[in-house]
Amino acid sequence: MKHAVVQRVPEQPAAPIRPWEYVRMRRRSAGLTIAEAAKPFYQHHDHREDVENNLRMFERPGVRIKRVRDLDLVRAFPFDPGIYTQLADDPAEQHPRLCRRCGWDEWAGGFDRQGNDLRWSEEQPAFCTRCETDLANGGRM
Q: Which phi and psi angles does 41 have, rounded to 5°?
């Protein structure tokens, strides 16, 4: 039997997470639709459509929210305006490490599906342990 020659191909660095992707990741990781995420931001039904349109716009590629801290998105889902600002303003090599599926960072806390503290996956280091479990159980990216 001949031995196969194996050459390791260097891993390509993952594309940086963009600010609009972070908004979408955090909303989806909370299990919310745009309509559900919009509810804390309006009291009169007449404003629902405007709020939903704004949330859709915040997730649109290329959109940069200028005064992200004023929006208080954390009223609807876990969201860190400091991370958003870093993703929008800082070079990619200075971005915080985020789960490539849900946008979790190690300072955010949280629990995995078994009730354990969230941490980085040992098997798939680009993901948190909750997303690792979800993906192993057929969850989508």
A: -105, 0
State the distance between the two ends of the chain, measured CA to CA, in whole angstroms. 40
Q: How far is the CA of 118 from the CAs of 37, 63, 76, 111, 128, in angstroms?
A: 23, 30, 21, 5, 7
Measured CA to CA, the distance from residue 37 to residue 40 in angstroms comes to: 7
The residues spanned by each domain of the chain are: 17-95, 97-141
Q: What is the pTM of this model?
A: 0.85
E strand or H helix at 22: helix 19-29
Report the DSSP beta bridge partners of residue 120.
128
**Assigned token pair, 112:** 């995995």
| Residue (of 31, 28, 30) closest to 20 by Cα position | 28
pLDDT (tens digit per residue) in 18-60: 999 999 999 999 999 999 999 999 999 999 999 999 999 999 9
Of 63, 67, 82, 69, nearest in space to 24 by CA:
63
| SS3 (DSSP) at 138 | coil
Q: Which amino acid is at 134?
A: D
Instruction: Check residue 39 and report its DSSP letter.
Output: G
- List pLDDT tens digits, range 92-102: 999 999 999 99
